[in-house]
């Protein structure tokens, strides 16, 4: 974990995450970022119910991207860090960094969610309580929503 | 498709289904059997709503198994066939066969579902309409449920 | 398939591709784009061996992104189209569009590969034969590599 | 961890492992058993190279099965335990148990590997060193191979 990291975890590259090139499959990085987001919310103590305001709001993903610098090999350990959280009016952008055993960056990713309620979903502002908690963990405001 | 097959499809071994041994990952066979089951029900014209009696019943999996004889290589075509459907009072057992490009059997699998309603789920009999349709496509009765 | 599409296929949203929100999981779109790329190369008749020059070259992914506009529901059919191929000196950028049953765009994605040889991988130019074939199927040159 | 367990770990049901029924997808249990096997070998200190005798031997899966008793819900913690290892002449059978937060068994699975060398693979005996180490961790002999 580096000083600027908001949260990080270490996992092994499991066999089921590799492909026939002998490396972590590029699509798995996205599931791993989401996995870290889930662990982050448990870590800071926001239960599912609280975060979703009793299931009245949810957070569909509207964007995801990754840039891959080096491959991750089967059964090696890696760290994935949540390095930045940017808050729009409705959107939350999470930035991630994957590091190999030597601490070298192997990939950087970002995922953007919007805050919605109802079905069909209607875009709403991030609830104030959630915004405050995220800011107390290093999240920053940005202009665009 | 062999004479005794109830239904079959051909797909390619996609890259995302392989692992670092350079073969189809063993866990993917289960998802593919389920995929064939889905296509089978559309093929015989039982819509989702009809099969689930307007979402009042559903079919959790209680058992799954596969025996692997030979590997499937990336980007080769294979056939997966639904070879048998056995009907209990509440359970449905689907048997599957995977064949490579030469028609050789590479794996055999089976999946068992039970018919339930409500939550927590309560076991019920397979609806008569569904049983009749399945039997018209070759399903057979068996004693155990 | 729309006039400007280079290639497209239709698949069903299979159960194993959905998540507990009752929609296609956002990470699956990436595997599906790759799946279409694989089918595209078979479709235009470039065998694995030819494309990889007898396994001497390969195409690691260096970037992937998706923008999600609407969810895809379980068991619905969707179309995924390869809408653009842009060729750099070494890189190939594939652009994709997902459309639901009504032809509405539900997601757009892009994936960038680089052409490398050896291990550790060394960046090389796209082989002329591959470049020519891709251009004959609508690929265009771009400046950056 | 129960007294008879050979090894166990706790993980959360991550979103990417769920399906539209709002539960862990049945195919994921197999990947998780394999994941535990990987962690077990690291835990007992058998490096990849040693176990595979410098990549000369490997362990294809020839059988896998699961029985599902109760669903696992998104974001809940569960324990998966390696409860038994049975050694044939060439085969290794691993038995697994999944337990929910209350310690109740939700699924039991088993996976069988064979020991092979070369390509095409030729079945060989489990190396004596590996057999001895596994027995020192509770593995037992069985008659069939």
Your description of this structure?
Four copies of one chain form a homotetramer. By secondary structure, the first copy, chain A, is of the alpha+beta class. The first copy, chain A, is 20% helix and 36% strand. Chain A is built from three helices and nine strands. Chain A has helices at residues 28-43, 48-51, 128-136, and strands at residues 7-12, 57-58, 61-68, 77-87, 91-99, 105-114, 116-117, 122-123, 140-141. In chain A, the strands form two sheets. In chain A, strands 1, 3, 4, 5, 6 and 9 form a six-stranded mixed β-sheet that branches. In chain A, strands 2-7-8 form a three-stranded antiparallel β-sheet, with no helix packed on it. The longest helix of chain A is centred in the first third of the chain and has 16 residues, at 28-43. The first copy, chain A, is globular and about 45 Å long. The mean pLDDT of chain A is 93. At the A-B interface, loops of A face loops of B. Strand 3 of chain B pairs antiparallel with strand 3 of chain D.
Task: Please outline what is shown here.
Chain A contains 3 helices and 9 strands; from the N terminus they run E-H-H-E-E-E-E-E-E-E-H-E. Chain A is of the alpha+beta class and 145 residues long.
